[in-house]
C-alpha cells in the first residue's frame, strides 16, 4: 500500500468527479507511474501541472508471506489491522497487483530492480528458487540497478531495515559482495538471509528435517557396515584387520552427532542480525527482535528527518517461525499466525506515529505490500502457520497493495493489472 499526502493533494481530492472514469480509461497506469517517480526524483513537472515538485520521503513496507485475504481492507473481518486499513482509506488500493514470483528471493529481486528475476539470474532451474543458506555465494549481482541506487544518486539517504534474502558474500565470508550496501543502501540493519522455520528448534522445518533424515540414513548404513565388518573380523570370515570396522563405527557416530546438533548449527549459521557489515547478534534473540527492528527504523527516520530519505522496512513478519511477542500472543481468533499479523499491523502504526511525531506525514510517501501471497502449506499438525490468499488458491502471487492516484482524481481502488516491478524507476524507463 502506498499513501501520498501533501497539502495540495487534499484540495483536489474530489475535483472533476464526473470526468474521472473517462480520463482514467485513457490514462496509462505505467505512464502515470513514470510521472510520479519523475516527481520523486526531482524532475520538473510540465507547465500547468498540479504535480508537486518537492521530493518526498519514501517509506516502503514489505511484509513476508502475507496473504491477500489476511487484512481488513481486502475483506477480512476477523483479523484486526486498523493501521494498514487506514493506509488503504487514505490512499488507493490495488486489486490486480502481481508479485514477480511466489517465493522470496526472485520476488524481492524484481521488486528492487524492476526487472524479471530471470534476467538477473535470481531464478534457479534446479528447483531451489530461494537462497537457502547465508554462506552461499549466490545473490543479486552488483551490476543490477536498484531504485535505492537511483534515489541515492539523487540525494536521498537510503536505508533497509529487516529481511534482505538476496545474498551476502561471494569468494569469502567477509567480501559482502551481495550486501545491501552494495546495492544503493547507506544503512542496513537486519537479517541477511530470511526467517526460516529452522530458526526455532522444534518448530516448522524448511531444511533441517530433510537433512537430518539424510544424515540418519547415512548413519544407519555406516552402523550396519560397522556391525558386518566387526562380525566378519571376529569370525575371521572376512579378510583384513579391525580397522575398517572401527572406521565405520566412527563414521556412524559422527553422522549421528551431526544429525543431533544440526538444528543448533543452522540457527547459529543462518539466523543472525547485522548492522551494516558487523554481526550484532548471533544467533538472534527472538523476544527482542521486533523491538530492535522498530528502534532502528524509527532512529533512521529521526536521523534523516531533514530529508529526503528512502526507508525500506522489510518485515520479518509473517514468515515462519511466527515472530510474535508476548504482548500479542493469544490476541487474535486465528492462532499464532493471526497474532503475528496483528503485531505487524501495530508495527505499521508505530512507523506512522513516528512520521507524525517528526512532522513528516505530509511530506512522505508510504507504501505497504507483501513480497507475495500467503504460504498455505505452512502447517504444524492441525495448526495453520501460513496465510490465506482469499479466492486465490495455492502459493499466490497476488499481494495487497495501495498506490496514490493522480492528484486531480478521487480514486479509492485501481483495478488495472500491475506488478511490483512497476514500482521501480527502472521499469517504466525501459529496463525489461
TrEMBL record:
PROSITE patterns: SULFATASE_1, SULFATASE_2. Its cofactor is Ca(2+). It comes from the Eukaryota. Belongs to the sulfatase family. Keywords: Calcium, Hydrolase, Membrane, Metal-binding, Transmembrane, Transmembrane helix. Residues 56-425 form the Sulfatase N-terminal domain. The gene is LOC105305976. GO terms for molecular function: arylsulfatase activity; metal ion binding. InterPro entries: Alkaline_phosphatase_core_sf, Sulfatase, Sulfatase_CS, Sulfatase_N. This is Arylsulfatase E. Gene3D superfamilies: Alkaline Phosphatase, subunit A. It comes from Pteropus vampyrus. The chain crosses the membrane at residues 217-238, 244-267.
Amino acid at each position: 500500500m502506498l499513501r501520498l499526502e501533501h497539502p495540495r493533494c487534499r484540495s483536489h481530492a474530489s475535483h472533476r468527479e464526473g470526468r474521472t472514469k473517462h480520463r482514467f480509461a485513457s490514462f496509462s497506469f505505467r505512464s502515470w507511474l513514470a510521472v510520479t517517480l519523475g516527481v520523486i526524483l526531482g524532475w520538473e513537472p510540465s507547465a500547468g501541472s498540479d504535480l508537486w515538485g518537492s521530493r518526498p520521503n519514501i517509506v516502503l513496507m514489505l511484509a513476508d508471506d502475507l496473504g491477500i485475504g489476511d487484512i481488513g481492507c481486502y475483506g477480512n473481518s476477523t483479523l484486526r489491522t486498523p493501521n494498514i486499513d487506514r493506509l488503504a482509506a487514505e490512499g488507493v488500493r490495488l486489486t490486480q497487483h502481481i508479485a514477480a514470483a511466489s517465493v522470496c528471493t526472485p520476488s524481492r529481486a524484481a521488486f528492487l530492480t524492476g526487472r524479471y528475476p530471470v534476467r538477473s539470474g535470481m531464478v534457479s532451474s534446479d528447483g531451489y528458487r530461494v537462497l537457502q543458506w547465508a554462506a552461499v555465494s549466490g545473490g543479486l549481482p552488483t551490476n543490477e540497478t536498484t531504485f535505492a541506487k537511483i534515489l541515492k544518486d539523487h540525494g536521498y539517504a537510503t536505508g533497509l531495515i529487516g529481511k534482505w534474502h538476496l545474498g551476502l558474500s561471494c569468494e569469502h565470508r567477509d567480501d559482502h559482495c551481495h550486501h545491501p550496501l552494495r546495492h544503493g543502501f547507506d544503512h542496513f540493519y537486519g537479517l541477511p538471509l530470511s526467517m526460516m522455520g529452522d530458526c526455532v528448534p522444534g518448530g516448522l522445518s524448511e531444511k533441517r528435517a530433510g537433512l537430518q533424515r539424510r544424515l540418519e540414513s547415512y548413519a544407519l548404513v555406516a552402523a550396519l557396515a560397522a556391525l558386518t565388518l566387526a562380525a566378519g573380523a571376529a569370525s575371521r570370515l572376512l579378510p583384513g584387520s579391525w580397522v575398517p570396522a572401527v572406521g565405520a563405527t566412527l563414521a556412524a557416530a559422527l553422522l549421528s552427532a551431526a544429525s543431533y546438533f544440526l538444528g543448533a548449527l543452522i540457527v547459529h549459521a543462518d539466523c543472525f542480525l547485522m548492522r551494516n557489515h558487523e554481526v550484532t547478534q548471533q544467533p538472534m534473540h527472538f523476544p527482542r527482535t521486533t523491538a530492535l527492528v522498530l528502534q532502528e527504523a524509527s532512529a533512521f527516520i529521526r536521523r534523516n528527518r531533514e530529508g529526503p530519505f528512502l526507508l525500506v522496512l522489510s518485515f520479518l513478519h509473517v514468515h515462519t517461525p511466527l515472530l510474535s511477542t508476548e504482548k500479542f500472543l493469544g490476541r487474535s481468533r486465528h492462532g499464532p499466525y493471526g497474532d503475528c499479523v496483528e503485531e505487524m499491523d501495530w508495527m505499521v502504526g508505530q512507523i506512522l506515529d513516528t512520521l507524525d511525531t517528526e512532522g513528516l506525514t505530509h511530506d512522505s510517501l508510504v507504501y505497504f505490500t507483501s513480497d507475495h501471497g500467503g504460504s498455505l502449506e505452512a502447517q504444524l499438525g492441525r495448526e495453520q502457520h501460513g496465510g490465506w490468499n482469499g479466492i486465490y488458491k495455492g502459493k499466490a502471487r497476488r499481494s495487497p497493495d495501495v498506490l496514490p492516484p493522480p492528484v486531480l482524481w478521487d480514486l479509492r481502488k485501481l483495478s488495472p493489472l500491475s506488478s511490483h516491478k512497476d514500482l521501480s524507476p527502472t521499469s517504466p524507463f525501459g529496463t525489461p
